[in-house]
Amino acid sequence: MASCTTRAQRGDRLRLLDAEDHLRKVRSGTIFALNQMLDLKDLDTGMHSTRLAEWAVRVGEHFGMMESELGDLETGAILHDVGKVGVPDAILNKPGKLDPEERKQVERHSEYGWAILRTIPTFERTSLLVLHHHERIDGKGYPTGLSGEDIPVGARIICVIDSFDAMISDRSYRKGLPVEEAIRRLRADSDTQFDRGVVDQFVRIVARDFVEVTS
């Protein structure tokens, strides 16, 4: 009888492992598909997101995040701009300055991304990082005006790294900034736009890992 029970338990365990493996594959496939969609929308956006994921995990590890939290952070960094699929190409690719109405449409991308991701099983926590990655420490960000530690730490990390990568990247309408200048601006806007602790940790990682992540 005990032997039969053991075999049944082993069978249940194997089925559970199979289900977990299937869920991981579905999650990975979903992330890949959405990132490919970003590449089709804007190649620079897709490549930018891949770099963000590398930086984000390294910063998150230094903040002592658990493995599940790092997974949500990595996914949030990869898919933080997925909501740009809802923004017209004419606005995203405009070479000049956006007018106020166009700016509002671009700012909606974080809400669009949240609306997409929150409907996918296991992406609920990630969707909140996407929703809040343009909040500011001083409460003057969007879309909800959260401030300080009310902003999820993962969103605070993505905010810093997203801003840094955007500053150093070439765009059709401007050249990227030198790394030193981008770091100076991060430090200058600490405690207003950015979390100072995240900036300090990220700058240390950039000094050590910049070539490895960007090559």
Describe this structure in words.
- There is one protein chain.
- The relative contact order is 0.11.
- The chain has helices at 2-41, 43-62, 67-79, 89-92, 100-107, 109-117, 124-132, 153-168, 179-188, 196-214.
- It has a single domain, classed as Hypothetical protein af1432.
- It starts with a helix and ends with a helix.
- Helix 2 (43-62) runs antiparallel to helix 3 (67-79) and helix 2 (43-62) crosses helix 10 (196-214).
- With 215 residues, the protein is mainly α.
- The longest helix is centred in the first third of the chain and has 40 residues, at 2-41.
In short:
This protein has 215 residues and is an all-alpha fold. It has ten helices and no strands. The longest helix has 40 residues, at 2-41.
Q: Note the main sheet.
A: none
Q: Which value, in Å, is the CA radius of gyration?
A: 20 Å
Distance between the ends: 60 Å
> Helicity, in percent?
55-70%
SS strand fraction: under 5%
- For the record, the CATH architecture stands as Orthogonal Bundle
What do the pLDDT scores average to?
87
What is the string of helix and strand elements? Answer: HHHHHHHHHH
- Count of separate DSSP helical elements: 10
Quickly name the level 1 CATH class.
Mainly Alpha
What is the CATH topology?
Answer: Hypothetical protein af1432
**What structural category arises from helix and sheet content?**
mainly alpha
Domain count: 1
Low-confidence stretches: none
Shape estimate: globular
Strand segment tally: 0
What would CATH call the homologous superfamily?
Hypothetical protein af1432
